[in-house]
Specification:
Elements: H1 6-14, E1 19-23, H2 27-35, E2 40-43, H3 47-50, H4 62-73, E3 80-84, H5 93-105, E4 110-114, H6 120-128, E5 133-138, H7 144-147, H8 157-173, E6 177-181, H9 185-194, E7 199-202, E8 210-213, H10 215-218, H11 239-251
Parallel strand pairs: 1-2, 1-8, 2-3, 3-4, 4-5, 5-6, 6-7, 7-8
The structure holds 3-methyl-2-oxobutanoic acid (KIV).
Amino acid sequence: MTKVTISTLGKMKAAGEKFVCITAYDATFASIISEAGAETILVGDSLGMVLQGHDSTIPVTIDHMSYHTECVCRAANGALVIADMPFMTYSTPDQAMANATRLMQAGAQMVKMEGGTWLSGTISKLVERGIPVCAHLGLTPQSVNTFGGFKVQGRTPKEAKSILADAVEIKDAGASLLVLECIPADLASDISRKLDIPVIGIGAGPGTDAQVLVMHDLLGLSRHTARFVQNFMEGQSTIQGALKAFVDAVKAGKYPTEEHSYR
Ligand code: KIV
């Protein structure tokens, strides 16, 4: 595919064209995800759960992320690669700078960090020095112990207001993309309309500019799946077919629907 950049994604948002992100952790899957037409690949710290067998993303280290980012970047073929900063690798701006540098040198074009207002100083520091940032709000899995489980966020007016305020602040700090995970569909649509940066949803309803799913979930390989996950292997005989079906469904506005959304 033609090389995807931040400007490509900005233009797609402006034109009302949905784009797609799928997680990958190795070269083979990066290559077929790119061939399926996904514009972005996320080297997610979800690898702690789907590859390493942990029950959260907390044990993942910067060495793990750096290794898998290198593997993915060798085969991304033009898709924009975002790499997750793992738990406690960005708690100060200097620590974030050192660890984000490792992921950029492993080949990523952008790093992703979970958090809102408290992260804005770190985001502006990274962006000023040439490291694009994707922020992640809502159900941020690295905070699972604070939330008391993998729970939908933003359901009360107070929580919704705080997520919206965080979104505006991280955008003003210079974030190029925002992931919204497991929040009510109306709130996600509202944030996507208000921000001029592309918003990627997961369990956030159909109103975002793009969708992301963990590859193992969309291929029906995970034991426990959330309400928002659809098994795209159904009706397909190959993994390539399932990945393409996901890409096509997002672009056609057929996934996600009301049944995959929280209200
Ligand atoms: O780690 C990951 O795969 C993620 C997605 C769930 C957005 O952060």
